[in-house]
Amino acid sequence: MKAQPRASHYVNGRYVEDERGDPLPVIYPATGETIAKLHAATDNVIELAIEAARAAQPAWARLKPVERGRILRRAADILRARNDALARLETLDTGKAIQETLVADPASAADALEFFGGAVAAFNGDYVDFGGSFAYTRREPLGVCVGIGAWNYPIQGAGWKSAPALAMGNAMVFKPSENTPLSALALAEIYTEAGLPDGLFNVVQGYGAVGAALASHPVVAKVSLTGSVPTGKKVLALAGSHMKHATMELGGKSPLIVFDDADVENAVGGAMLGNFYSTGQVCSNGTRVFVQDRIYDRFLDRLTSRTKAIRIGDPLDPETQMGPLINKAQHDKVSGYIAIGKQEGATLHCGGGIPRLQGFENGYFIEPTIFTGVEDGMRIAREEIFGPVMTVLRFSAEDEVIERANDSEFGLSAGVFTRDLPRAHRVVAELQAGTCWINHYNLAPVEIPFGGAKQSGIGRENSLVALGHYSQLKSVYVETGDVASPY
Ligand code: NDP
Q: How far apart are alpha carbons 193 and 10 in whole angstroms?
């Protein structure tokens, strides 16, 4: 299996290689085989990319928003037309089941390009009347923006960051995760094909050091990172020391609350979506599933049988529902947390093992896992595992569960399953989270803001709010009378 791109980086509208950069092998997580060999960006490549972006941005910003938007919408059409090939590439890069990537990954990037390409022309400043004299505000781009992506949704991340940035008239230098460098290059090619002028979307590969070099580069006006909380703290500090704008989309340990009047099948479906999709590698996952006493046994019964029926295996088989984890380090981390859960005294209710799959013996597979008998203070209930490990906790009363749900350093997301709608709204109003779902889980349509409270991040992606985060306001006061001066 090979997925070798023409070169490691995409700068100023073309592929660029610099073999002096650190080797960056791309591993197919299902087999452990090397499918591409790339190089991390050298300082030279980083400078070329930043300079290309800096040079291209002013002319792009002077285009009418509808003209910029038209190019983004054309790129969205190409993404959709190539959905199957891009989904396959994403599956090779991430190991995620093709049944997911076919519907979720390039499609979500295309949605972002289409939405921001259309919305930007209607995203304007304000007019303020002073009875004769007046003021208005202009929405101006920031300049060169840096996007740094995580490995769980590579093309989606590249689309979610680049679309609002470009729509607003900025240029972007994007660094994918070292684990998943391929699909951002495909997106860069598509942008060029759609007519995006050279230099506006550049992809440079690399490890954390390349991200840090970009985040601290003096030309860069904004950094948008998707990653873990520790990385977010480092990148935000770098951005802060240079007074750059920053958006941080970080990790979580989100609560999903199932009240005893909930539809059991829907609640189980939501809990499984919120723990097992993308092999559990989703930032917003509802990994603390609080279930009310009266429904607990029924919920656990259906959850167990549906979880045991999950088909793990070849990610390229459309019947497969769960692929491997991204790499050995993540496999070790998730296995380590399963061991910790057992040591802490939680009950390993289901899963927890490493499946032996013929032909995939070197893949990073792990069974979907459910812990019961979990106490709030246990590490498996407090720390982000980023794998298919669900903790199920019991609760009795509404006030109690709200307090327990909020007892976390994170605040990315939360979910509530109940048929009692007044209660649903009352509870989500109390939950400390950037996104809440009532009677569903983990949907992130581009039309609504997405981001975290507390340690889970700063700023929002998606929706018109993201255009705000990729722009700055200029206030213009216009005097129509004489200047009243005391001098
Ligand atoms: P990491 O924090 O390890 O890495 C994120 C990105 O930052 C990678 O591209 C990484 O490069 C880069 N990076 C690492 N160190 C630095 C540094 N010092 N300066 C600049 N850049 C750096 O996250 P993962 O890739 O492991 O992704 C998983 C995490 O992302 C989870 O915590 C998850 O919750 C979170 N996430 C959040 C989302 C959200 O929207 N809130 C969505 C998806 C994931 P490299 O790959 O080379 O290490």
A: 13
Confidence at residue 1, expressed as pLDDT on a 0 to 100 scale: 85
Catalytic residue among 100, 253, 283, 384: 283
Q: How do 413-417 and 435-438 pair as beta strands?
A: parallel
Ligand 1 binding pocket includes 36 (Cβ within 6 Å)? no
For residue 85, list its beta bridge partners.
none
Q: Which residue has the tokens 């519907």?
A: 103
161 is catalytic: yes
State CA 265 to chain mean position distance: 27
Out of 249, 350, 367, 384, the active site residue is 249
- β-strand pairing of 369-372 with 347-350: antiparallel
How would you list the strands of the sheet with 14-16, edge to edge? 14-16, 9-11, 201-203, 171-175, 144-148, 220-226, 245-249, 457-458
Identity of the residue numbered 388: P
Q: Is the distance from the beta carbon of residue 169 to the nearest atom of ligand 1 less than 6 Å?
A: no
pLDDT tens for each residue of 29-84? 999 999 999 999 999 999 999 999 999 999 999 999 999 999 999 999 999 999 99
Pick from 231, 250, 456 the residue to mutate for probing ligand 1's pocket: most ligand atoms within 8 Å of its CB: 231
Cβ of residue 212 lying under 6 Å from some atom of ligand 1 = yes
Give the whole-angstrom CA distance, residue 108 versus residue 80. Answer: 10
Determine if the pTM surpasses 0.90.
Answer: yes
State both tokens at 197.
């002028």
Q: Please state, in angstroms and as integers, the Cα–Cα distance from residue 229 to each residue in 250, 294, 353, 476, following that order.
A: 5, 36, 28, 38
Q: Distance between CA 401 and CA 201 in Å, rounded?
A: 45
Q: How many A from CA of 231 to the centre of ligand 1?
A: 6
Q: What is the pLDDT of residues 303-356, one digit of tens each?
A: 999 999 999 999 999 999 999 999 999 999 999 999 999 999 999 999 999 999
Span from the CA of 44 to the centroid of ligand 1 (angstroms): 23
> Could you tell me if the CB of 411 is within 6 A of ligand 1?
no
- Across the chain, which has 487 residues, the per-10-residue mean pLDDT values are 96 98 98 98 98 98 98 98 98 98 98 98 97 97 98 98 98 98 98 98 98 98 98 97 97 98 98 98 98 98 98 98 98 98 98 96 98 98 98 98 98 98 98 98 98 98 98 98 95
- Check if 249 is active-site: yes
Question: Annotated catalytic, 178?
Answer: no
Q: For ligand 1, atom 25, name the residue with the nearest CA.
A: 150
Which atom from ligand 1 is nearest to the alpha carbon of 234? 18
